[in-house]
Structures are given as C-alpha cells and as structure tokens.
Design a protein that fits this description.
The chain is of the alpha/beta class. 54% of the residues lie in helices and 7% in strands. The strands form two sheets. Strands 2-3-4-1-5 form a five-stranded parallel sheet, sandwiched between helices. It has a two-stranded antiparallel sheet with strand order 6-7. α5 crosses α6, α15 crosses α17 and α15 runs parallel beside α18. It is globular, with a radius of gyration of 25 Å. The two termini are 26 Å apart.
C-alpha cells in the first residue's frame, strides 16, 4: 500500500502512537472499517453547509474507536471549511446541565484547518475582514476612504447582527466593541471582549464597559451565544461547526439530580437542532451502549430515549449509517492486522517493512488481545503503542534486532487505562513471541 503523507505528518502520527494517544492529524490513513460511514456523513456535512443542522450519536464500547472516529470526522469537516471543537463532558469542570461551561470549553477548543485552538480571535478577525470585503465589493465606497469604509462596515455589521441583537444583544454589542477596539489598535480591550464572547469569567470591567456589556454568561445565554458564534463562523467563511461532546456516558456516575438535569439539557439541545435554532451546527455525542440502553443513561428520560431510538440487528454490516445512532462494532483481529500494516507504511522504514511482516503483526495482535483477557476491542491502543515503541523503533535502530527472537511482550499496570487494567490479569506476565 502506498500512503501519500508528508514526512512531518508521518512523524506526528508515529509519535502520537508511540505515546499511546490518538494522532491529532492524518487519521484518514489509519481509518480502518470507516468507509461505510463516509457517504452518509459527507451528506450530513453538506446539509449543514447548506444552512441545516444535524445531530448524531456514536455508540461503542471502550476501545471501539469513538475518539478516533470523532477526530477522523473532524478532519473531514475541516477540509470542507468547518470549524471543529471537541468538549469532554465532566461532572466537575464541564457539566452538561451548565451550558455556559460547555460553551466556554467549546470556544477554548475551537479549531479550523488553518488555526489551532483557540481559533476564536482569528475567526473574529476573519469576520471583520469579510465585512470589509463585502462592502468594497459593493462598489459604493472607495478603498482609500477609511471613514466611509468604517461607516459602511458598521452599517453592514448592524444588518448582519440584527437577528442576534434581538435574542442576544450583549453578544452583538461585544462584537461591535471588538471591531472598534481592533480598528483602534487597542489589543487589551479587544482581547478582553474576545474573552467575554468566549464565555470566560472575570473579564476586566474596563473592557466590558467599553462595549456596554455586563455580567457573566449563564446556561440560557450560552445557547444564544452559540447562535451568535455560528453566524460569525458563517460570515467569516466557515460553513458550519462540528461540535463533539465526548464521554457523555460519565453522566451515569453523577448524582441523580445532576444527571436528570443533564439529560434534559441534552434533550432540549437535540430538540433545538431539529427545530432549526442552530443552522450550521453538527452536534455529535459519544457514549457506551450502557449509556444509551441502560437505566442510568438515556433511558432514564423517555423523551430523549425516543429521539435517540435506533434499531440495531445482529450484524453490524447492515446498520443504517443515516440513522441517529451509529454503532462502532470495535476491532477484530483482522482489523488490527490491517491497522498495523497501515502504521508500518506510515513509519516508512525499509528495515521495518522487511523485518515485520503481516504474520508477525497477527502474532502481536493475538498476544496483546490475549494479555487483555481476549478482548480484542480493548487492544488497539496498547497494540499500536507496543508495535511502534517496542518493535518498529528497535528494528529501525538496531541492525541485528529480531522481534521474534528478542522481544517479549510485557504490560505494566501503570501504562494501561482503567478499562485495560480491568481486562488484564492482576500480575504482569511476559508473553514471548
């Protein structure tokens, strides 16, 4: 297999796998078994680009590749011009029933193909630039007429913000203040107003007074701020936002009152998406089957369970990729071998290609899965970490090192996640290959 990846992307992918984490880019070359989702998801992205909104739920056991899936989709979205943000739901830091914390993390993690998190300031600057370009394209104002340009941009800004002003006057006022401060070169005030627009608390009162805004964001204000952010993204050249709410299954472990509030907040968010309140939003949540089907998760709130209800048959290959829920069946041994072969190609070392054949990839896959109680679905992270750090790196550096002769697989408790430790036996065991 020939993989067209730059040397830098290869290094980034290999280094991430060596550390046991999902790479931040280049996931398309590692996407095993996701082809069946691409057509339906691309249609969803196109629908959002056209001003619609989409909600999807991804279900899979731990190790099934939910994080990989969401970041793979994020890469596809960025290539279409989307902004992307991934928010980890947490009882203490990002409780779902307090949307102001979700919105704050959304902005902190906001990224585009050109800009890493947080991309809010570049998006705001792009929005202002787009307003100026639209005014100049109209031909009514000369480029060297700065006063006329400022006045015309201000008038266009008011028209674009009309809908936002009716629902969230503070957001519109802060945008006006941001543009004024930026034009005047007052970066302190502009930075403060950008932070306020991002839902940050404790913004300097002087910056807020400049724009005539006050107070801090609350749950209901956050939903209106999200509407405003979607408008700014669209006007600055980004057709939509892919928002991933990851680890939603943690709601099962919070107090019952907080859980009920969070589930109801999710139900309201889903209803708002279906009602068209958030044009340009693609909301994706992830969770385990227990969260979607268990008594302490979605099933606890009947209306939410109805909205997420999806029939799954015995064979995953007949799953409907257009359904509300998407099922990730997890890795098989053959899929692990295919994934290992792709990583071998990304590693791009003639010595590794010659010394580590597909038979050995299968031997290592079986050994790792066996060490994890035979649970192949839990094995991918450990398998790739061991493959890169323990096998590929040694083959590449030492001429006389042979993995079949010199390598013994050992899993230590401190290198495993909680789920992996639960799957593994209590004692460390060396498995010769």
């Amino acid at each position: 297999m020939t993989i067209d990846v730059s040397a830098r992307r290869r290094r980034d992918i290999v280094d991430a796998l060596r550390r046991g984490v999902v790479p931040s880019n280049g996931l398309d070359v590692l996407a095993v078994g996701l082809d069946r989702f691409t057509a339906a998801l691309d249609d969803d992205l196109d629908r959002v680009t056209g001003g619609g909104s989409v909600f999807k739920a991804v279900r899979g056991e731990y190790g099934a590749g939910k994080t990989f899936f969401t970041r793979w989709l994020g890469e596809r979205a960025k290539r279409k011009g989307f902004a992307v943000s991934e928010v980890q739901i947490s009882e203490l830091e990002t409780p779902l029933h307090r949307m102001e914390t979700v919105y704050r993390r959304l902005v902190e993690q906001l990224a585009t193909e050109q800009f890493a998190p947080s991309a809010l300031r570049p998006v705001l600057d792009g929005w202002i630039f787009a307003l100026e370009e639209d005014v100049l394209a109209g031909g009514d104002v000369a480029e060297d007429d700065q006063d006329g340009l400022d006045r015309a941009v201000g008038e266009l800004l008011e028209r674009r913000l009309a809908d936002i002003s009716r629902t969230t006057p503070g957001f519109a006022a802060a945008l006006r203040g941001y543009r004024t401060a930026s034009a005047a070169g007052d970066q302190v005030t502009a930075g403060g107003l950008a932070a306020w627009l991002g839902g940050q608390p404790h913004v300097a009162a002087s910056a807020r007074r400049t724009a005539g805004v006050k107070g801090e964001l609350d749950h209901f204000g956050a939903l209106s701020f999200l509407q405003g952010l979607l408008t700014v993204l669209r006007d600055s050249g980004h057709p939509g936002l892919l928002l991933v709410l990851d680890e939603v299954e943690t709601l099962q472990r919070v107090r019952s009152d907080a859980r009920d509030k969070a589930l109801n907040a999710l139900r309201q968010l889903v209803d708002d998406i279906y009602a068209g309140r958030f044009p340009g939003l693609f909301l994706l949540i992830t969770g385990t089957p227990a969260f979607f089907d268990g008594a302490q998760g979605v099933q606890r709130l009947g209306p939410l369970a109805q909205r997420l209800a999806t029939d799954f048959g015995a064979e995953a290959r007949w799953d409907n990729p257009r359904a509300t829920q998407l099922r990730l069946p997890g890795f098989t041994e053959d899929a692990l071998v295919e994934l290992g072969a792709r990583v071998r190609d990304v590693y791009d070392s003639p010595r590794v290609t010659a010394a580590v054949d597909d038979d050995y990839l299968g031997e290592l896959a079986r050994a790792v899965a066996g060490r994890l109680g035979g649970k192949v679905g839990v094995a991918p992270r450990v398998y790739l970490k061991k493959l890169v750090a323990d096998v590929f790196d040694r083959v590449d550096q030492f001429d006389d090192w042979d993995p079949r002769q010199h390598y013994q697989l050992t899993l230590r408790a401190d290198e495993l996640t909680e789920v992996e430790r639960n799957a593994a036996s209590a004692d460390d065991i060396n498995l010769p290959l």
